[in-house]
# Entry
Amino acid sequence: MTTGPSSSVAFVRQALVPAAPPPPGQTGAMRWVRENLVSSWFNAILTLVAIYVIWSVLSGVLPWTLNGIWNAGSLNECREIRDARGLETAACWAVINERWLQILFGFYPTDDPLLARVFYADAYAAAGGYDAVFGAASNATDRIAFVGAMKAELGNLTIFFFGYWRPLVALILLVIAVAPILYSSLPRKMLLFSLAYPFIAVFLLWGGSVWGPVTVALGLVASIVVARSVSAQSSALFGGLASILFFALFFFNPLGVLGVQGLFPLFPHVKGVFDAALPFGITAIPSDIFGGFMLAIIIGTSGIVLSLPLGIALALGRQSSMPLIRWVCVTFIEVIRGVPLIVWLFTASLLLNYFLPPGTSFDLLLRVIIMVTLFASAYLAEVVRGGLAALPKGQYEAADSLGLDYWKSMQLVVLPQALKISIPGIVNTFIGLFKDTTLVVFIGLRDPLGLTNAIRATGEWNGIYWELYIFVGLLFFVFCFFMSRYSMYLERKLRTDHR
Amino acid sequence: MAEMTTPPREAFRLSQLLYDARYRSLTIQVVAAILIMLLLVELVDNTVTNLAALGKDIGFGFLWSTAGYDINQQIIPFSSQDTHARAALVGILNTLLVAALGCVLATVIGVLAGVLRLSKNWLVARIMTFYVEAMRNTPLLIWILIVFAVMTEATPQPREFREGGGASMILWDSVAVSNRGVYIPKPVWAEGSGLVLAVFALSIIGIFVLRRIARKRQEATGAQLPVFRLSLVLFFVPALLAYFVMGRPVTLEYPELGGFNFAGGIQIRNSFIALWLALSLYTSAFIAEIVRSGILAVSKGQTEAAFALGMQPNRTMQLIILPQALRVIIPPLISQYLNLTKNSSLGHRGGLHGCALDPGRHHHQPDRPRTGRDAVAGRVLPDHQPDHLDADEPV
# Structure
């Protein structure tokens, strides 16, 4: 009954239809708009609402921002300029223009002799040179007047680049030191500089004799050398013990309990020899006048660097098979996590002195760094523990069956994988730590927020708030946003499963 | 035939404490225990020595002595003549109140932002991304200070609420937002209001019973009751009936401008509002991310399967996606609530006195330890905001 198609079908096309362009509205921008903005009635309404929200925010914020007044001496002056220009609203960016150095560096002193010698040479010579202006016998009132006139003449940018060269160089070196840690494509030799950086930074920021940080570094290197050579001679255990003994003798006075003073620690003796042989140093700056965003970076970076190893150690301790170690770690973690950071900071500033031997008092900034480190390490320990627990048990067993001892198996098999899983949590903790550095304002350190309050308390800028908080907020935003983006990059880079 | 050989039993040697993995952990723990004990002894010894040198002792006796300071926001009455213990109680109640309110508001905003960030609408998703990133990447303290500054400096003074003063109360003249705080109406409980409350409580219980009955019925017969509408009726009708039958026993006392300040109503301090709003906005960004990740964690196949079964989108959300997403959402959500509660200790920057009472306060007591903090705090941070603290007592 059925014959070929030719008998039953009226028409068969012999050639291909030429490809037609897609209908309008299915390509390019039109399609994007259709799919993303007006795909349904509800979506269209949402778009309208969103546009209205954006418009109402921008129409308020943009004129205020763009019409901002950059040159004024006080808030009242700003308002006069605004009224004179006939504007309804205008930001008074003049406060940032005038005070940004203070927000960045607090009351960290500028290198006035350098500024005077290089940029203000004529007036400096006229005033009588170093001895007359800055020398020991100089008049403080005259010096303040001289420095004030000089700074007004030079302008904030010159002061930023040359007056604050110490924190600035420390910051640039920080970037160089951190870069090889963050990006593995950079030469590995740069890591040596990263190791040396803490000592350089301490020297630049705190000043004083260069031999202080150098001697500390030498002591640490010597401890390692002692450990290496003794382990090569006898066993790893004696190497470790000898290293600890050397460390203790170098930095502490173990004979102090017996009442023998003077012989130990070795540290001041070595430093004294160096100082006598080749005295070199820069002006010492006590840490209680550190301030501004610099303080946030110092506390944040040291906290981050110190808390990661401590947090990993605590997480491993919490998983340990030794009950005592486990209990100690659990107690530490839970006690630290159960109490707000601000309470710990109060503890650091008020109570810590009671726990230390009578007569010792050490730097508030150092105490704060220690507290922030301990606090962050407890949170990190929990994050890392999550990573350790997420790892399949087979990985631990495989490492054991290869005959690796505990440390080797952790170092080569378990931790690389566990840390990779916990990157988001670790970076979250770091971002939290960096943001929490603002809390040091409660114990009287001059962090950026404390400085905004100080600026708002002055007669000129009383009543200003948005401009200052936006500036400080942006500073923090840039750093935290970079950290979160970096963690995403790292996750992508370390992803080994092919999805 | 193979012979079973047992390893020769060696005598215990002292070196095994170091080199034998079976005993080494014991050695490590003993050494650790000794070190910890030494550390504790050292700490206690130092503390005792230091306190003895200062002529102080450790004790909680100060809790029962007169506080001597005021607390601005009080849920229970407190005066400077009361004890430190009562001050701590007031502080704890403040913390609990701000934490509870903050959790509620943060959840509402956070869920909304999280869901909207997943919206197919590009514009809405971008706005929410901006919101979340801006909130998450700046310190909470900045938000507290901003809200506080706005509340105290951008809001009108009470006297501007006079006729022709340029400011007016919102929400049908019932709420006044001023630089001395937000004034809201205060409910006045007259005779018979207990009955209204009892009826209301009963109808709440009724709603739960109704839901139970409806579920039982559906499981038995498959028929569904209009639970939501019935619940609405149960929620409003009995209480309203009781309210009118008892002759409107519950009335509202509105804040009124008297003299230079508002009288009547409840005054909520700006510090409280600032802490509450800032905590809620800040935490909501984290909650938004948690909600988003929870929803994304439910695989797309689940939605498709539900649609294949012929479920409506809202039933799909309610019965398929939410139960699975909540499993992912709830643990981190609870930890955000804990964070919010701990962060409420930042309140005293803005001047709210919570349970993390400023230790400086106790330090002003002559019999408590004192260090340099009092001096430092006063010098570095001119607490200039606080005119609001004491200056805004009703005049």
Residues 221 and 287 of chain B are 40 Å apart (CA to CA). Residues 21-54 of chain B form the longest helix (34 residues).
